[in-house]
């Protein structure tokens, strides 16, 4: 029986206040409104607490991480985007807790026996603690549009309709993305060796810890030294990560400009190839010899597929592929194989994240927000055109892990499917997309020919 998800929600009902997180953040950033900050803390306290408690395993450390998370919010509130801060806060909480666990002290015996039930495949207490931590560590790495439904529905107790209202999404989008997030989480946990059912246990945070976080955030009480140091460390790591992204984008842009200049210099008078019309009838005259009769479907200038049975990749088919063709990291694997498997998992996840954004991110209204509409399409096109290179990265690692012809073929098929997906993207460079898909099909055809 496949793993299933059990949601044990906290006794507290979802908040009934109507002021959006975006409005509360605006008030706090502009006037340092203490009431707005307090409402943000209370609204998302349970989600932040669960991330801290599950990753660290004990209440004392979790309280420090909880306070540091909201202290980070006081410093970075202006950078939080979207209508709901819950996803951002959960990610900061999980990363803060991981940082404290690494720097301060290892996990010790947890104190929440009654909130997470043992499963037949979890074994002893330490393994259960590691499993609970892994759930939140993996969730913190999800794209925002998958993390938010989990935080709102599984951790904060909102119904799908309530979450849809908070996020401004259709109810169907909330349900669909929540289902996809569950599938992604199962797959990621399986790669780490966890095969037990995932337990989302929303445990209410003690009121004294909430009050302390509010007091520290509003300046009513001084932050403990450990919390201050932890906050500074998290802020530094966030700044470093941002600088790395900016550097990579700058290098990529300069590289693209350089390639364009070189091409223009070498091909100043590059001709334009006219595309001949494609005929619908791809069957030769029955009285002629097929070996010597030109195929009208392959007329000069057209680029049909030699593998029409391979559909374009989708988020669902990629998830199915991961579950079927990517092995978990086994205890008995040698170090090199463990490292290669981890690298492959990350490469495929980058491919999945780009595909998820291309397929599922809601398009802004061009009439009311033309800048956001333009930025959305720029990012969508950039991610789309990056799919072939992400696929090549994953394929290279997979070929080292799976050297047999039989195990390599699914990756060649996946490469063709990715190429077809890029061709379907509106405004994508069509010639480049067709060339990449053609190369993938040639690689697959050569592989099949050797059999």
Automatic annotation (TrEMBL):
Residues 40-105 form the RNA polymerase sigma-70 region domain. Residues 273-305 are annotated as: Disordered. The keyword Cell membrane does not apply. GO terms for molecular function: DNA binding; sigma factor activity. Transmembrane segments: none annotated. One of its GO terms (biological process) is DNA-templated transcription initiation. Gene3D superfamilies: 1.10.1740.10, Winged helix-like DNA-binding domain superfamily/Winged helix DNA-binding domain (1.10.10.10). The keyword DNA-binding applies. Residues 134-181 form the RNA polymerase sigma factor 70 region 4 type domain. Keywords: DNA-binding, Sigma factor, Transcription, Transcription regulation. Residues 285-298 have a biased composition (Basic and acidic residues). Belongs to the sigma-70 factor family. ECF subfamily. NCBIfam families: sigma70-ECF. This is RNA polymerase sigma-70 region 2 domain-containing protein. It comes from Gemmata massiliana. The lineage of its organism: Bacteria, Pseudomonadati, Planctomycetota, Planctomycetia, Gemmatales.
């Amino acid at each position: 029986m496949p793993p299933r998800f059990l949601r044990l929600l906290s006794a507290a009902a979802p908040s009934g206040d109507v002021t959006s997180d975006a409005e509360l953040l605006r008030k706090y950033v502009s006037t340092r409104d203490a009431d707005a900050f307090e409402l943000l803390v209370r609204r998302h306290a349970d989600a932040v607490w669960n991330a801290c408690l599950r990753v660290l395993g004990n209440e004392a450390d979790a309280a420090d991480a909880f306070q540091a998370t909201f202290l980070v919010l006081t410093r970075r509130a202006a950078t939080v985007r979207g209508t709901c801060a819950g996803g951002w806060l959960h990610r900061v909480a999980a990363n803060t807790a991981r940082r404290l666990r690494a720097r301060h002290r290892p996990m010790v015996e947890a104190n929440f026996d009654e909130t997470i039930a043992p499963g037949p495949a979890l074994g002893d207490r330490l393994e259960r603690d590691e499993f609970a931590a892994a759930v939140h560590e993996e969730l913190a790495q999800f794209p925002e549009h998958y993390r938010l439904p989990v935080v709102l529905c599984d951790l904060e107790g909102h119904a799908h309709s309530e979450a849809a209202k908070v996020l401004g999404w259709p109810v169907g989008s909330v349900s669909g993305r929540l289902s996809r997030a569950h599938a992604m989480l199962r797959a990621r946990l399986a790669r780490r060796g966890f095969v037990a059912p995932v337990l989302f246990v929303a445990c209410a945070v003690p009121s004294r810890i909430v009050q302390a976080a509010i007091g520290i955030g509003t300046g009513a009480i001084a932050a403990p030294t450990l919390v201050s140091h932890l906050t500074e460390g998290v802020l530094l790591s966030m700044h470093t990560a941002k600088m790395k992204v900016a550097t990579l984008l700058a290098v990529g842009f300069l590289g693209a400009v350089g390639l364009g200049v070189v091409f223009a210099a070498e091909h100043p008078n590059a001709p334009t190839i006219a595309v001949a019309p494609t005929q619908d009838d791809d069957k030769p005259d029955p009285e002629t010899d097929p070996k010597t009769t030109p195929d009208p479907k392959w007329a000069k200038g057209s680029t049909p597929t030699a593998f029409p049975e391979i559909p374009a990749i989708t988020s669902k088919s990629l998830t199915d592929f991961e579950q079927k063709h990517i092995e978990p990291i086994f205890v008995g694997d040698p170090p090199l194989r463990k490292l290669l498997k981890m690298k492959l998992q990350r490469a495929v996840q980058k491919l999945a994240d780009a595909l998820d954004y291309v397929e599922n991110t809601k398009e802004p209204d061009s009439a009311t927000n033309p800048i956001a509409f333009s930025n959305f399409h720029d990012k969508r096109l950039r991610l789309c055109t990056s799919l072939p290179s992400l696929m090549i990265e994953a394929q290279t690692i997979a070929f080292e892990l799976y050297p047999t012809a039989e195990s390599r073929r699914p990756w060649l098929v996946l490469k063709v499917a990715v190429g077809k997906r890029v061709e379907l993207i509106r405004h994508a460079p069509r010639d480049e997309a067709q060339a990449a898909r053609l190369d993938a099909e040639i690689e697959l055809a050569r592989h099949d020919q050797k059999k």
